[in-house]
Amino acid sequence: MTKSLPAAPLRSPTSESNGTDPAYEQSIVIPNRLITIADTFDKKEHSRFVTSQIPTDLSIQVQDVTFNVHKYPLVSKCGYIGRLELQPSISNFGYDLKLENLPGGAEAFEIILKFCYGLPVDFNSYSIAPLRCASEYLDMSEEYEDGNLISKTEAFLTLVILSSWKETITVIKSCETLSPWAENLQIVRRCCDSIAWKASRENSTSGDIVNEEGWWFEDVATLRIDHFARIITTVKAKGTKPEIIGKCIIHYAKKWLPGLDVELEGLRGYGYGKNELQFSVSIGGNEEGGVGHKEQRTIIESLVSILPPQQEAVPCKFFLQILKMAMVYSASPALISELEKRVGMMLEDAKVNDLLIPNYKNEDHGKLVNSPEHNTMHNIDVVQRIVEYFLMQEQQQQQKQQKIGKISVSRLLDNYLAEIARDPNLSITKFQVLAESLPENARTCHDGLYRAIDTYLKSHASLAEHDRRRLCKIMNCEKLSLDACTHAAQNERLPLRTVVQVLFSEQVKMRTAMQGKETAPRTDNSEQEESQSSNSLEIRNLRTELENVKTRMGGLQSDYAELQREYEKLSHRQKIVPGWSSGWRKIKNSFHTKVEGDETGNQQRRSNSTSRRSGWRRRLSIS
């Protein structure tokens, strides 16, 4: 494609020239002929030609494009080219020059050539930053010509660009490829200050409605993370409300971190490989058109660094989302620890699904340990540390706030335990440690804890009896509701000792309900201690009675075994059968006589627990 451009008069580089160059002398003597110096401006694939009556004498290479131009139009305005010692060309042209790392590349240099030849040049928001940096690179200052390119681009940038919101956004985007020139020339700083000033000015005059103040979120979310962080820092310094800054950061994170909103609702599915649990979380948009792994980590670290310290600025859900992403992209341990502390400070606002943090596997972390204990579906250790940070934070709060926070977190933790209890690789130790991480007085009701324990026992049917007893020790049967006691009394997965405690607690609650009395408030320490002591005494008595029954049952089984052996010896005699039957009936009657005598001696105690003892007998007969 060929462009015919009008010529422009040339000005000598300096008025004190000695006139040793013939071409230079010609430009002084015959100025009228110089008007037609640029008759046409031809473009080819990798070259540009200025065709005129005067042949070109300079070949300049910028990137992969070669410009064949006249020397003096550039020397008169570009101090950098005038100071160079140009090398003679081995081709038909006079000199060769290669401009390396020119800001803006060939496109900016072509506009500069038009300016040097005196052709009309239109400035816009897309080209002004590259032209300003390139003019600085070529030293196109007022020292060489009045109204040179540096002063013109600077005036356009200050007077036109910075007064417009959209033009400023466009310019700061164009600066992403102009480092470090755009930084050194303060173009980025001035644009960021202008954007921050406009955003904070609107925020300060639009009232308390946060939703109306987010008009600028989408524009700043299109910027690179370092420019976005600078704008947010400036906006924060101008006194913008933390809630607005938090909403803007969340908007940016959702745009640049695909998969941030991915949630796990319990165990969606798991399968087994040879020795490890297979689990994967799909993160859409990361493979097609997304930024790379390293860039994602940089975005996460930058966003965390500019988060406002106020708790009301960002919800707990976002902290847990960004924590998951930080673990996916292998962020530094210090960053992950900082996020865990922030979550712990506001754990009472979290939801169960937000705490379900998978055990991510990636190349940086390598393969997980083949031990099933380390192949749990969810990262239990992270939640454990979050709870510890929460307890540390609660110790610094007032007593009233402390109790309310712990009660809320206890419900959250019980629901979380019920979710992870279905994991076949979750060890009883991890489950117990997490369940006991809260102090005893944090739970006013143990129904949620009972549900979690029952879920674990159901999912781990092969659990040994001593492990079942160990797990049930976490639960306080006295803090179970009447419905939970009814369910637990019929639960065959619970150990016998736990069932006895549940039956006793159920009877006490039923007696209290029948008498129309309410349970004493938990806050009354004296009444609570008295009730606990009386309950403990009754439990000890019941345990003693149960042991006596077991002892008698053992003696009966020994007698039965002895009779069985005797019967086998005398089985060939028919007359032994009535005698053996008679003997067995005597032993059976004597056992019932002993039991009835013992029951008669404990008449008062039996009147209070008739229904409970019948339940034990049914259990004993089954065993």
From TrEMBL:
PROSITE patterns: BTB, NPH3
SMART domains membership: BTB (SM00225)
Residue numbers spanned by region Disordered: 1-23, 512-539, 594-623
Leader peptide range in chain numbering: none
Record-linked InterPro entries: BTB/POZ_dom, NPH3/RPT2-like, NPH3_dom, SKP1/BTB/POZ_sf
Pathway field: Protein modification; protein ubiquitination
Keyword Disulfide bond: no
Ranges for domain NPH3: 214-509
UniProt keyword annotations, A-Z: Coiled coil, Ubl conjugation pathway
Record field: compositional bias (Basic residues): 614-623
This protein's record includes keyword Coiled coil: yes
Family: Belongs to the NPH3 family.
Protein name: BTB/POZ domain-containing protein DOT3
Organism field: Acer negundo (Box elder)
Species lineage: Eukaryota, Viridiplantae, Streptophyta, Embryophyta, Tracheophyta
